[in-house]
Amino acid sequence: MGINRASVQGKKYERFIYIMLIISSFSLGLFWLWEVWRKIPSDINVKAGSNQEIELLVPATARIYKNKEDQMVDLDLSKEIIFYAKAEDTYTMEVSLFGFIPFKETSVSVIKDKKLIPAGTPIGIFVETDGILVIDTGSFCDLEGKKVNPSGDSLEPGDYIQKLNGEKIIDKEDLIKRISECGGQDILLEINREEQVKTISVTPIQNEAGEYKLGIWVRDNAQGIGTLTFIDEEGNFGALGHGINDVDTANLMELKGGGLYKTDIISITKGEGGKPGELTGVIAYSEKYKLGTIYCNSVEGIYGKLYPTALDAGELLPIGLRQEIKKGSAQIVSTVSGKKEMYDIEIINIYPDNDNVNRGLEIKVTDPKLLELTGGIVQGMSGSPIIQDGKLVGAVTHVLVNDPTRGYGIFIENMLEAAD
């Protein structure tokens, strides 16, 4: 009895096709679920005292309540919903896919409506770390010419040295001086490592010049140029739209304090594909030219208080929450030309629940004048306010290195939450 090889191969091929169809369908299903998940924010803010239109347009229903014992309101998320609350409060929204599959829980916060001045002004930034930041540890030669590394097993990049033998360290120079005067005795360092305070013992060793060293590179301040995003009616400000990270460790810097200073842009390096541009400025680091103080450095930006006469007041604009933002035309406010101007951009994509809070908006510069001046978005423009339909909706945060006309922005509500 013969075996039809063609028939066997045909059946194997059919099974392979069926398996691939199943895998493809499963993958498409997971992708679809992920897209639905992303369309439903984990947190929704709405303004107190006004109707808020929210268009999620997903095949789901939701129940919203303040406490589970209270009355629940049922919502159809496949249609536009209108939310209204008279006063500031917090609610929970339980979302069910197709009306019966538990899917996601969202926090709904009713916030006070605010008006802000979109600044767009270049600023000089000087910040001091809360402790002495360890950038790295390394070896050096001792008196006998042998390589030693006294701190290699004790300190790590990103540690903040705050006390030496129980006494607070003033600055980097103070740390170096006290180590050099220790006489080779063990010293106790109080450090902050990932928000945990630890005390470690380290023994300084003399280098070839006879100086006592720990073999560490440290930093106690940082400076640079950015853009002021907003000023509120009390003179509080937000800037950058992202935090100040240490250039060597890439960690968010823990601040003791800092200030904003007047800066003059003296040149602009245009951005090109694969080569980001930048603003070059002169910063006047003196009390005479100080504009305000910095009290907070967060992932969403830097925050502080302006001096009353620091900057000319501008027009107050209402804020626009993420559900009010639309794809399409918008503007950024910038002073790169030497005067405050509005430049046209396009909002390409909106990511209401992005894991990266600094990339809630994807934007593209379309204004011919700004493209001629900078090539698009350049370093130093982080914090430039984004305006749509007369509302302040966000701030520029990043540029795409391969295409300087495109970049990302943060929602203004995220900056305000961090400021609070």
Description:
14% of the residues lie in helices and 46% in strands. The chain has 4 helices and 30 strands. The strands form 7 sheets. Strands 8-17-18-23-22-19 form a 6-stranded antiparallel barrel. A hairpin with a 2-residue loop joins strand 28 and strand 29 (391-400). It is globular, with a radius of gyration of 28 Å. The model has no long low-confidence stretch (mean pLDDT 88).
- The whole-number mean of residue pLDDT values reads 88
Morphology call: globular
> What percentage of residues falls in helices of 4 or more residues?
10-25%
Strand order of the largest sheet: 8-17-18-23-22-19
Q: What is this structure, in a nutshell?
A:
The protein is mainly beta. Helices cover 14% and strands 46% of the residues.
Keywords:
420 residues; mainly beta; Immunoglobulin-like; Thrombin, subunit H; Pdz3 Domain; 3 domains; six-stranded antiparallel beta barrel; six-stranded antiparallel barrel; 4 helices; globular
Set down the secondary structure blueprint.
Layout: H1 5-39, E1 43-47, E2 52-54, E3 60-65, E4 73-76, E5 81-83, E6 89-97, E7 101-111, E8 115-137, E9 140-141, E10 147-148, E11 160-164, E12 167-168, H2 172-180, E13 187-193, E14 196-202, E15 205-206, E16 212-213, E17 216-231, E18 236-239, E19 255-261, E20 263-269, E21 278-283, E22 290-298, E23 301-306, E24 317-318, E25 328-334, E26 341-350, E27 361-365, H3 368-374, E28 385-388, E29 391-400, E30 403-411, H4 412-419
Parallel strand pairs: 1-7
Antiparallel strand pairs: 2-5, 3-4, 3-6, 6-7, 8-11, 8-17, 8-19, 8-24, 9-10, 11-12, 11-13, 13-14, 15-16, 17-18, 18-23, 19-22, 20-21, 22-23, 25-26, 25-28, 26-27, 27-30, 28-29, 29-30
